[in-house]
Each structure stands twice: as structure tokens, then as C-alpha cells.
Prior knowledge:
alpha+beta, 5-stranded antiparallel beta sheet, 574 residues, 7-stranded antiparallel beta sheet
Amino acid sequence: SSALVDDNGSEEDFSYEELCQANPRYLQPGGEQLAINEVLDSHMYQILDSRSCGPLLALPSPFQLISDGSVVCAEALWDHVTMDDQELGFKAGDVIQVLEASNKDWWWGRNEDKEAWFPASFVRLRVNQEELPESCSSSRGEEQDEDSSKARHKHPESQQQMRTNVIREIMDTERVYIKHLKDICEGYIRQCRKHTGMFTVAQLATIFGNIEDIYKFQRKFLKDLEKQYNKEEPHLSEIGSCFLQHQEGFAIYSEYCNNHPGACVELSNLMKQSKYRHFFEACRLLQQMIDIALDGFLLTPVQKICKYPLQLAELLKYTTQEHSDYNNIKAAYEAMKNVACLINERKRKLESIDKIARWQVSIVGWEGLDILDRSSELIHSGELTKITRQGKSQQRIFFLFDHQLVSCKKDLLRRDMLYYKGRMDMDEVELVDVEDGRDKDWNLSMRNAFKLVSRTTDEVHLFCARKQEDKARWLQAYADERQRVQEDQQMGMEIPENQKKLAMLNAQKAGQGKSKGYSSCPVALPHQSLPPVHQRHITVPTSVPQQQVFALAEPKRKPSLFWHTFHKLTPFRK
């Protein structure tokens, strides 16, 4: 495979010996946002006078602005969930007032009524600092109002100038991002492929995923952005059509985001050996890349796809309805939000199929196709009584997945063991609610009952729940299952066959030598206990958090009760 070459650049080969001549340095993991914040700190971003193209005023760093008494606010890129009361928790889109920014990785800030540390890589500085949210402006009273007026006096800007600032930020960060992708492809991947003794093809595929495809796509996207960018009057730029034209292409980020956790694990294993640490650091130095480790660069695509909706939302805020690009910007904002949600949904489903595969392996006597051939998510589960035409009752545990309903029977001695008893195609049946009382068709007295009637044959299945609340849950679960199937079809949600096979293969390997029983399925880990308050000290956290969130907001769907139901159904554990 040949390395990718930039349009205006050239390739230069280096041997491994030349790479090792560079002095290796040990770096803390970072991310694109830290790099961009550093760029802001070094005065790269400039405010332009609306009457000319020349630079008018360099925007000081957050630390300098705070020292001057100005109010600095940042916007959260992702949710930051923490159990430490010395860290500031927030959701994507929240605005945090930055009170202290002398540390590169951790800043001190206020959100609502709490002040605490938060990771700088989880936020982006607001482009137009003079327009403050109510939550910030109301928290400091008169002192805050005085600071706000000072900030506005220092940086008076018109609506056009505000839009200019956002446009320029989008263009500048896009160019920085392309530079990062180019450095990864030319500085790391090219060198790794030359040393087959250190890296296998599978290892490189795991670590870098499809980042080369992303690089090719982003170069085309930036080229179109540059065509729509008005250098003389940036506020007149019409970039909304670029996002709409390439919205389907952004779907390639789904594969990368799904692969990223595995890439972190593989890279972490390699970095335990000094030769790999030296090799990757030498690659960085020879490529003249900024002071960020490889895992930080590999995080940039994940960060970037989440940042687009935030940037477009801010651009829409400063675009008047009379502007020629207003409708396209509004449509682009919704489109990029949908892209982020789709990526998040695909990742959630990939995580779900691993659990479902392990569940199937735990079932005794499974027959027919694998559950993953048609399903990727458990909607609901619980005990029901199935009634036959002869009036016989069968106690079963039912698992409702998308497209199919699986029935199992408990072992008489080992209640944690389940036997496969059959399944039903939910695409071929329709649910019918049955009122309490005697049913004329079955000549039986019913209570908390419902039927599943085949759409193609006269076959009818009758079920009874123990309580009215249980029946209501099953009726709602059926409606949810039909809705999710429809949504998956509309979004084009489909798990690749290789991912399904890999999930089943891993589940079968993990299940070898273990006794059957669904109580052996993994459960949520308990929360990590924290020391008493009086034993804690207010100190800057030592490392950047490792969790990454792949979407801007919580998905509309409610969380699955899959493992919670398993926990409730398990009467005892070994």
C-alpha cells in the first residue's frame, strides 16, 4: 500500500535507524481539542475588522483574558460524567465559565452553582466571548455584569463580525484537522508499514482503522469548503451546501468510532514495550508534529465528528433568516446531528450484539439460525404463561428482540439454566389485546392476556401475564419493537456480517469450559468507592480522563433492561 501524499506536498523516506536517532520523549495522552486550545493560546486566532481583511486584534489566551478580568466561557463537546466531587460534571452543549486556565490539561470552572476541575479537552472555547449565557451572567451578580461590559467594550463586534468569527473558526480548525490526518497517514502509517517485523497487517488495521479513507474524504470536503469561502468578506460565505453535499460521506466515521476502543487497547499493549514507545515518538519528531502522543491523534476523528453540529449551531445563531445561506445552514445542522446520532446508535448496537451473542451461548439446546442473523437488540424480557388450544398452560421466559421473540424454559433443579423452546417471527404476527373475562374463541376465562395472531395463517398464540402492570409492559414493548424496526430501516441501520460472526466467535471462545447458565452473563460493575471528604485534597487531576463519548446528546431510545432483567430473574449465584 502506498502512503497518501498531500496535493502540495512530497514524500521523503526515512529508515528505522534514522528514526531512532531522534531523542524519544514521553508524552501524556491528549487530543485535537487540546491542540486547538494551544493554538488559541499562541494567538493564532485573529479577530478581523468587518471593513477589511487584515488582522486587527489578536485574541489573548484564556489565561490572559482571565488575568485581565474578562469572563471566558467554553462549550462542552461531550458529556463528562464523574463520581469525584472535585471534578465538574456536565453534558454536551453546556456552557462552563472558565475561572482558571494555567494548567494545560485541567481547567477550573463554574457550571450552575458548582466550581471544580474539568478536562480542557472536553470543551471548546466560545468564539464570541462577549455574548454570555444566563447561567454564567447570573452567578456573579454585579461583578459579573461589570466584567461583561468590559469584555464587550474591548471587543465590540457586529452580527456580521460574529458570523465572520465562526466561519473563520470552522475553516481554521478544518485545516488543522487535515494537517493532523496527513501527519498520521504519512508520519505513522507509512513508517509502520515499512517494518513488518514490528507490525502485522492486522495490528495496523486495528490501530488506525479506516483513517486513510477519512483523510481522503476530508481533503475533498475541505476543497469544497475553500471554494465556498469568501476571503474578502467571510460573513458572506455559503458553506451550508458543502455539508449537505457530503452528509452521506460522513458515515465512514461510524466504522472508525466503533473500532476506536479496540485501537486504544492494541496501542496500549504495544506501548508497554520501550521499542514501540521510541519508534512512535521518533515518527512524531521526524514528521514535526505537535507535542501530542499517538493516542491523542487517533482520538481526533472521534472529536471532529462530534464538533460539527456544535459549530453549525453557533453559525446558525449568527446567520440571519435573510442570509442566502440560512436554509442550507439550518438543514446542515440537522443533517450533522443525525450523523452523530447514527454513529452513536451503531456503536451502541455493536456493544449490544456482543452481550446477545454471549447470552445465546449460555442457552442449552439452541436450534436454528443465530439470534444475530436477524436481531441486534433486546427490547424486553420476562415470564409469561402460554396457553394452548387444549387449555394447557406452559410457564416460559420470553425474550423480545427486534424481529423475533424467543421462548425458553427454566431448569427444574438449576433455575439459572435456560433451555431453548422456540421462537416467533415478529414481522409475521400482530398483537391483539384481550379483555379480562371469558374468551369466546378459546372458551376460557382470561386475565391479563394478549394474543399474537399470524398475518399469513390462522395460527394464534395466547399469553397471560401475572399482573396487569406486566401485561402493560409487554404491550408497550411490542410497540417499541415495531418502532425500532422501522427506525432502523429509515436510518439504514445494519450490522456488518463480519461483526456478527466475530461476536459469535468471541462468545463461543469465552464460553468454552464454562457451565451453562444465564447468570454467568456479565453484569454492571459496581461504582468505585471514594475516600471520605476530609481525606481528599483539592489538587489538579494527574491525567486526562480516558472515556470518550461518541454523540452530542443522549439517544431518544430508553436504555435496555436486558441485564437488569437477568439480575432480577437469577434466584441465586454460585
